[in-house]
Fold each of these.
Amino acid sequence: MLRWPVVFMSTDPFVQQVRESIETDRLLGDDEPVIVGVSGGADSMALMHALASMFGADACRRLHVAHLHHGLRGEAADADAAFVANQAARLNLPCTVEPENIQASTGGGRGIEEVARDRRHAFFQRVALRTGIGVVAVAHHADDNVETILHRILRGTGLRGLRGIPAGREIAPGSGIRLVRPLLAFRRDALAAYCSRCDIDFRADETNTDETFTRNRLRASVLPMLRETVNPAVDDALLRLSEQARWVESYLSETAQRMFEALVVQCTDRELVLNVHALIGKSRIIQAELVRQAVRFFELGEQDLTFGHLTAVLDLAAGNVSGKQLHLPGGLIVVKDYGRLSFAIPDHPPREVVAPEVRVDLPGETILPVRRLRIQADETTRAALSGDGPASIASWKRRKPRHEEWLDRDEVHPPLVVRARRPGDRFWPLGAPGSKRIADFLSDEKVSQAERGQVAVLCDQLGPIWLIPYRIDERVKLTPATRNVLKLTATPLATG
């Protein structure tokens, strides 16, 4: 018999505030399970208890504790691992503890903090794959964000760096696993107060006071000095700066996405070519965002893309020399050839070249030899599909084959074409609260990198209407007002 501790009955306002923060930032779906990274410190213990309290009797099903035993502090690290396992057991939560020799992995110019972060993320991904859970929650809070923003300013950062720590992102490019931070709106004092009120035990890590680490110096010396001698509210000022940077960056990203389509000259899963004259005709800041969009298309991650990289690409585009090339992080090569600016991954494992566009007969049958697909399009009326017989809408909804979709014909605007996914492509997935980038949708659906390069996008004049075979656009779904129906079937061609 399970013995539920008092924490599940908590009515502490902090727990309600965490719930509201999760809902506001849409960090978790309804009834979605989550892995919580727990070091044993006050912050992560507060997060674990708050989530357990939120989930109530469902906590043992929805919450999985993960602790990486980093081996950096000898017996203290052993005690941390034992403490986390014990605390998880007291809450009846499943727990994974795994050892890792982080010290042995340092070197090559990489600091121990960077290595430890990468190893933690790799560990979280392993736990996610073993458990089938697609979300990892960690306990970064507002004070961590302040320190991050100040650190980036002092090192030299661009607008994106000023955004600070995001509330949610993919843990690694193409992983399909989300890393979320439900405590970003809370200050360290609020977490400590919650632990005190609810008698939550935690472990103190003495390395947090070691000022040989830059972040610790910022926390212990620089920020207190700034509060005392420059601005008592320096933390709030940095957080406001971060919020405004997010506003501006979001506007620039949306603006660049709208422009990007017109710049694309050629596109496959291995190469993207832009019209260089159209690119350099934009303002410098929009040019930089367009280049970032091009890099993002290859889904290699942007963590290592610096302002210097962006500037070098823009200078290459604006220069008079053709044939010159640049090397960007992730193996991406940029070449200017007269009026073309090409982004390519030449060493990428070869995959089937995607046909640029194929016109779909409406009605009729269309063969896509490269895609190995046959698309059958048939038009009919809703009246012909009424009732509950085997050919009715009701029957189709019950059986719903994966490669078959029925659309509202009056919301479809021919001609129809099947094409490859393009940078910045967006659609409104059926059932979703709004539109999203196709790349983000595929990531959320955990579609593998190889499959993403082969996704067929069926479009009408207004944009994508079916990401074959994953989801249709909300715009073309059947509704009670539908009068005419377009039946689409995408059948794999026989091999051999």
Amino acid sequence: MRRSRPVVSSYDLAGFHFYGPDICLQAEFLGGTAWAIDFHLRHYGKGQKWQSFHACKRQFIAKYARYQPNRHLHCTTGIVHLSPPDEDADR
């Protein structure tokens, strides 16, 4: 990140599951861009999508669906559909 244009994650979102997409959207809202690096690695962790993941996903969607309804984000956890909660609560 550039020191002249710092980007911070949202204060109203909890957890780490959607930190990446959150900071990318914050950069976009501030007029910047976000880039992904094609970096191949193997994750040996036994990460599971527990309750905290699903709660964070609902919170993330609820926040950003207001600003960019029906947008699709490609995240490391899969595709996230920013649909209003009454349409796709946990898709």
Amino acid sequence: MEPYYEHNGITIYHGDCREILPGLEKVDLVLTDPPYGIGAGRMSLGKWKTSRMRKLDWDAHPVDSDLLRDVVSKGNRACVWGGNYFQLEPSRCFLVWDKGNGFRGRDFSECEQAWCSWDAVSRIKSYDPLASGDYKTKQHPTQKPLPVMRWCVSQADRKAVNETILDPFMGSGTTLRAAKDLGRQAIGIELEEKYCEIAAKRLAQEVFDFD
């Protein structure tokens, strides 16, 4: 399949991951944030309410279990956000994103959990997206903060160097942007073209030195 975007080791495919995954080689790390089935597409995020209504059902159901197993099997290691919503293998390693004081007492989760396939102790990162201003610039309803996704890569790297990272539910491309910032290669797959375009624009920005 012809890539939607390809530059300096970062590739985006526009399409259904069920059709694209079989043609991909196994990667070092799968890092992804699939639909949890909590209706995020219909949450009260004003600018998304004006989108085409037929597109707002993308999170009506959690991703299919068979598909998720196929996704996880594509990586030597895997980190799946929302892992507590899915039937995955038992693991003692979860990465927990503590959203900080901005979410205390609100009708939102105060933290989110990512299931990890490798054996390690669980870790917590505190990062308040409201205080940091991330929520003012997010371009996808469930977009993870970039520092959180870079942290995920660094945690996976404690056991192995993840040179190639795959995100089959790419959204606005935060996983790919984190990979680029850290000097990794990456592959993203996204069903909706407008998010492929957003991701490509984010990847065109310069890389900053995080050392």
